[in-house]
Specification:
- This protein is mainly alpha-helical.
- The chain contains 11 helices and no strands.
- It has one domain.
- The two termini are about 20 Å apart.
Length: about 250
């Protein structure tokens, strides 16, 4: 009978201490992203509530900032077929969002990130003169995220595991527990599937030059679907780390 923590409870190729130290550094960065996505609520033991989906999408302000520029581009381009005003309008909105956050002395990084994304998308579209290229950047980012997550699974360090481990305060100890390791590997693969699904659905619309359908699909599969997956991940983590009334999550 193998004792807990026995080598048979660990996944193959257990890391050396130097690898674990590097993973801890990466895990802290991933944990910050997970906190911004709302997964820290699972670590704190909070129950899932009706507002969790909205919170996962950044609240009302975050939802507006994420969706409105894309809606404006799609409407202006569909009506005018003129690329210049179509990219100027969402860029102007991005500037307004940033100024509003500065005036309110609130966190500006979401608005800055959104504005940079809009400007890069606008430059790509203006460079080619093709409205569908406004969405080109999204294909590259989805592909990059999907590949990074998939590679992390293949090398035995699933990125969602690193993030969750940091949030739960157990570092990389989850890798020595077969059930947690497999579950967090599965969670990472689910996110790989999310990014792959975006490409599978949207790339045919891009090559068909169907800007309207591509724009609508991008909006639906963007922040709303992302927020839903964050909440499902929240529930997944909560089930993996049951909270004891006398101690932190996962301590029994």
């Amino acid at each position: 009978m193998a004792a807990p923590g026995d080598a048979r409870d660990r996944p193959e190729h257990a890391p050396a201490s130097a690898d674990a130290a590097s993973a801890d550094v990466l895990a802290e960065g991933l944990a910050g992203a997970a906190r911004r996505a709302g997964l820290d609520r699972a670590a704190a033991g909070e129950p899932i509530r009706g507002h969790a989906l909205l919170a996962a999408m950044g609240g009302v302000r975050g939802l507006v900032e994420a969706l409105l520029p894309g809606i404006v581009f799609l409407v202006v381009f569909t009506v005018t077929r003129d690329l210049v005003p179509s990219v100027i309008a969402p860029a102007a909105l991005g500037v307004v969002f940033l100024l509003l956050r500065l005036a309110a002395r609130s966190q500006t990084s979401p608005a800055i990130g959104g504005l940079v994304g809009i400007l890069l998308s606008a430059l790509l579209a203006l460079r080619t003169g093709d409205g569908r290229d406004f969405y080109l950047l999204g294909f590259w980012t989805n592909g990059a995220y999907g590949v990074a997550l998939l590679v992390s699974v293949l090398v035995g360090w699933p990125l969602l595991g690193l993030a969750v481990g940091a949030l739960m305060g157990e570092g990389t100890a989850w890798r020595r527990q077969r059930v947690k390791y497999r579950a967090l590997r599965l969670l990472t693969l689910i996110w790989v599937g999310f990014f792959a699904l975006r490409l599978v659905v949207q790339l045919p619309l891009y090559f068909a030059d169907n800007v309207e359908a591509l724009g609508v699909t991008r909006l639906i599969m963007g922040t709303p679907l992302y927020g839903l997956l964050v909440v499902l991940s929240f529930l997944f983590v909560r089930g993996l780390y049951p909270r004891d009334v006398n101690g932190p999550a996962g301590q029994h």
